[in-house]
Write the structure tokens for this entry.
Amino acid sequence: MTGKRLFQSVAEQISGLINEGAFPPGTRLPGERELAERLGVSRVTIREAEIALQAVGRLDIKTGSGVYVSEKQLEERSALPAASAFEVTEARLLVESEAAALAAHNISDEAIERLSQLVEQMRTGDEAAANEADEQFHRTIAESSNNSAMVHTVKSLWRMREEIPAVKTTYEAVCVHDADSRTAEHEAIFFALRDRDPSRARNAMREHFHRLIEAMLDATERMALEEVQERASKSRERFAASAKIG
């Protein structure tokens, strides 16, 4: 699996089942064998995924008892604001532009190399790999700012992007249509950071988010039009069916 190890994908599947309510907080997960059969992977992969989910607080592994869905996460998840995709992106523009400027002063050669690899990963044509690279690219920049408050804020904004359903849907609609623009914009950010140029890094990040907001407006209009067309189609079908009966 390109850009992502199998256990990470399985961890996302288990996390998704938890989010959907298949495994409520406090309940015990099915055994490794049952989960392995259900998800079509080995028991070793299930074990690795569960360990990864325990590390981020989604699961509690109790020796001799089993694996349980953490009860703490309900409070954490409910703490997310009812923010729109535009609000999240506006906040990201403000925070991540300054994170890029800070990173230009502090970034290491290792982080520069990592960003280069992530830009190349975005070119593969593999949507899942590109999305993973996108997140890691932004997190690497935040970490390179050497500001723990900035890192926490960027991670929180990414959590909103992924865990607020309406925000996630809007981002997914945009990412389907803007792969080339997204890669070019990340490359511009990378070049500015490679040259240790704070002003260029800040501006490149701003341009990325300004274009993203414009793409969101287009995507929102497109989704609204598709919804109207779907409703109209259903109305025609009902009308046709009524006419035949009459």
